[in-house]
Protein 1
Amino acid sequence: MIWSLQAAPDLTDKQFAQWSKLLEDRAGICLSDQQRVFLQTQVTMRMRELGQTDYSQYYNRVVDGVSGMIEWAVLIDRLVVKETSFFRHRPSIDFVRGYLQNQINNKTLKGSFDIWSVGCSSGEEPYTLSMVLNDCFSLAQLDPYYGVIATDISRAALGIARSGVYPQRKVEMLEPHVRQRYFKQLENGRYQIDPELKQRVCFNHANVLNINEMPGIDQNVIFCQNLLIYFRRWLRHEIMNAFVDHLKPGGVLVVGLGEVVDWSHPDMVRAPVDDVQAYIRKAAV
Ligand SMILES: C[S@@+](CC[C@H](N)C(=O)[O-])C[C@H]1O[C@@H](n2cnc3c(N)ncnc32)[C@H](O)[C@@H]1O
């Protein structure tokens, strides 16, 4: 019987440790022992596609030079959780809306308003932020002057994000006026994001572990939700520290509620909001 029809052999403890270490070293993602079946399923599915039968041989293939990097790009997409939705955490989105609205009202907005969505998955989060910023500028009858940078480690997720086309189930929970304003229904029933909104969002492949190597402009808002939870506590803190260096004075860092505990930074103060975990960078003195 060929291997593809047989049950996959179980990962040994040693093999599980080896694969987990690779995932953590390269992507920061720390698997618990309960996720062994998940890891095994994803790895064996990929091995089947390649006609490979031996975990160790496949491991060597993944870590071998340039071709290994290409294989890694395929595998990592299978190992990350990409769940997301439009307006996923409303209080955090409303916090960003209020933050920009205040700057518009107080006339303290200087230059363009820049947001970075870190771990943007298939694009729902950065497009949501783009809708909110667009709303704020049009309410104030100002020309929209903003940009959204959206990064993720999964090339497949970025492909969906760049297409800006979503199935009906992804948009049906949106308020009808939002759907009408920012989406067009295609003949095949899918929904396409408004082109003007789309051109405001720049998608890039990036691993947040390499944050210190990321060039680019400082941000008014860094929005990072449902990503740091997969990392060890010390790594969450390191990345939070690095985020601070990418913020403009007065800029805000918004993370998922409860995703980072016991973190503080001399340049940051916690925003006094109950259901949002946000930190404001102190203005330069
Ligand atoms: C659960 S999704 C969250 C999506 C969105 N932020 C939200 O809250 O709805 C987590 C995303 O983080 C990405 N990710 C995981 N590890 C990463 C890393 N080391 N660097 C960049 N992105 C990563 C995954 O590919 C995935 O798209």
Protein 2
Amino acid sequence: MKYCVECGSEYQDSVTACADCPGVQLVDKETMRERGLPVANERDTRQFVRVGTAEDPLTAEDYVQVLEAARVPVFTRPGRAGSVDALTTGNVMPWWEILVPVEHSARAIELIAREKDNLQATEAEAIRAAEEEELESEGYTAPPPA
Ligand SMILES: [Zn+2]
């Protein structure tokens, strides 16, 4: 069987294009899975729920990669800053919603939480390294780790 990458419709192998989506390529089930796309009749009944947000597109992309690696179908959409944000900061900050099918939400939330920790640890590590480098360049030796 083949599937439309756009709408997820299922087709016989002899079919080369989706009847509903002109010009859209059909791929096999494996490819759909690899790309984290829902297949045949799953999309309509699926309910996507928000499992997290990202404050920049790179972080959003990072979460998507983590979820896709875990075979969780995922997509992002830009969120809209609420009036509270606009009032408190005076800026409209962009952010991204991470959405997955409801049946994957518990796992996705866990994966995102773990990845968030990783990102923060990496950031802290980078800051620490930069500080040590700065100290060294000033002639100090960084203290040994406790
Ligand atoms: Zn289609």
